[in-house]
Amino acid sequence: MKLRTVTEGKGTQIVLIAIALAFLAFFVLLPLISVFSEALKAGIGGFVAAIETPDALSAIKLTLLIAAISVPLNVVFGIAASWAITKYSFPGKSLLITLIDLPFSVSPVVSGLIFVLLFGANGLFGGWLAAHDLKIIFAVPGIVLATVFITFPFVARELIPLMMEQGKDDEEAALSLGANGWQTFWHVTLPNIRWGLLYGVLLCNARAMGEFGAVSVVSGHIRGETNTMPLHVEILYNEYDFVGAFAVASLLAGLALVTLVAKSVLEWRFDLHSGARH
Amino acid sequence: MSTQYPSPKARARSWRKPSVLPGFALTFGTTIGWLTLIVLIPIATIFLKAAGLGWQQFLEVGFSSRALAAYRLSFGTAAAAGLVNAVFGLLVAWVLVRYAFPGKQIVSALVDLPFALPTAVAGIALTALYSPNGWIGQVLEPLGIKVAFTPLGITIALVFIGLPFVVRSVEPVLADLGRDVEEAAATLGANRSQTFSRVIFPAIAPALLTGFAMAFARGVGEYGSVIFISGNMPGRTEIAPLLIVTQLEQYAYAGATAIAVVMMLVSFGILLAINALQAAGRRRMGA
Description:
The complex is a heterodimer of chains A (about 280) and B (about 290).
Chain A: H1 10-39, H2 43-51, H3 54-87, H4 93-101, H5 108-119, H6 126-131, H7 140-151, H8 153-166, H9 169-176, H10 181-210, H11 213-219, H12 229-238, H13 242-270
Helix pairs in contact in A: 1-13, 2-13, 3-7, 3-8, 3-10, 5-7, 5-11, 7-10, 7-11, 8-10, 9-10, 10-13, 12-13
Chain B: H1 8-11, H2 24-62, H3 65-98, H4 104-111, H5 113-116, H6 119-130, H7 137-140, H8 151-176, H9 179-187, H10 192-221, H11 224-230, H12 240-249, H13 253-285
Helix pairs in contact in B: 2-13, 3-8, 3-10, 6-8, 6-11, 8-10, 8-11, 9-10, 10-13, 12-13
GO cellular component, one term (chain A): plasma membrane
GO molecular function, one term (chain A): ABC-type sulfate transporter activity
Subunit structure (chain A): The complex is composed of two ATP-binding proteins (CysA), two transmembrane proteins (CysT and CysW) and a solute-binding protein (CysP).
């Protein structure tokens, strides 16, 4: 390059890089390190003992169950929504996209509150539910509902830009060669979008397992029954069982790290754009 | 096997352009149905509930002195954290896009950690760091700087939460920015800081503002990472989302609803502003 003047001098570069790295180390890396360091304060034995309590194990099971229900629901929705939005043209499309994004702009606590207002004891359907001996709030269905609401946009918003870019030529070719709609979807569309879909699923899953505010409002914090991992972290922390709290927290931090590594690999290998907005 | 070409008549719906691709009814129906059930009806409920309160009661519980203090704290700390992130997020994005250094990809992945780390985990980690006997707290304590259980602590938690929004908004715009305009500016005699303030900054300003607005909106509603470090003293370090939870625990549904509606209206206002900004940005870039 001839025009070396169009960048900063080496010294300026090093100073800027140093400030940026120091900021990240201080605000992002240090909290992450402290999770693991606090978790191992009582040694490996203390860590394992904290994880092996029945309450912690049941919280882990519940968290896995919640993710196993809500992520597939949002995958089906995300694929349907992005197919409808990217393969056809109809009026009101940008309004539809805005509405799909709506849960991102609602505070997690408010997301929980709206389901309490619907299904809680004093809620709109509270009386009817009680009469039929059904429980949504302070039970697993409420946690699933709140989690589905919170993670609603994740898959759709990864797929919509991707499928928009890919257009519909491949699908039209498949159809004209005699494939039916489902065959076109399974053999043409799905292979085209699989890495973007995986990316969306990763982010959706991380949020589903880690959600705190919304779940906290609807769960009722019943130990061994409606306590997810993040809620269990809070309970242990408030009881000054710091090793226990950080032990469970370190499992969640481990999940976050796995998510980040998988996400980076997808980005580097398949040149997916990092989702700028969640 | 028969082809699935729909007859032209069946496809002649006036409100959308015809398409040879099947599945419109299925996918559009699923989308609208699921959206209505999971998102629209629940959100409508809270506005209905708020409308049922009547103006008098809505203003009374939605704008009580305790609620006002909570809004001030939530909006104030979110704005402060957004500003910090606007400055340092821009710097991080700049360094990631423009400079080469070892470990860059790891640094880039680290930027996303606040998206991936559950908020409660971030909350207890930050509290452990900044409490008076924590790694950072014990350094700041002798200097008379209190972080945990003060608005400063809340701001730090929101800086953590908001950082990726700014970096990931600015990064693609910065990467797409043609170097030719900078070369032209340099050729015409501009020095580096003039080029930055007159050429580069105006081009990335919409993205930076979008990132700030998203970090701000997220910060206003943030709960998990804040409640541990904030100390939760009513009127002093009680954020608005926590006040909603407190009201709910006391079965004060009217109060919880009114505060939630005020927060949602502000959030939706910000969302609309972001969309308008992005539309303006697209027009500017000629796309």
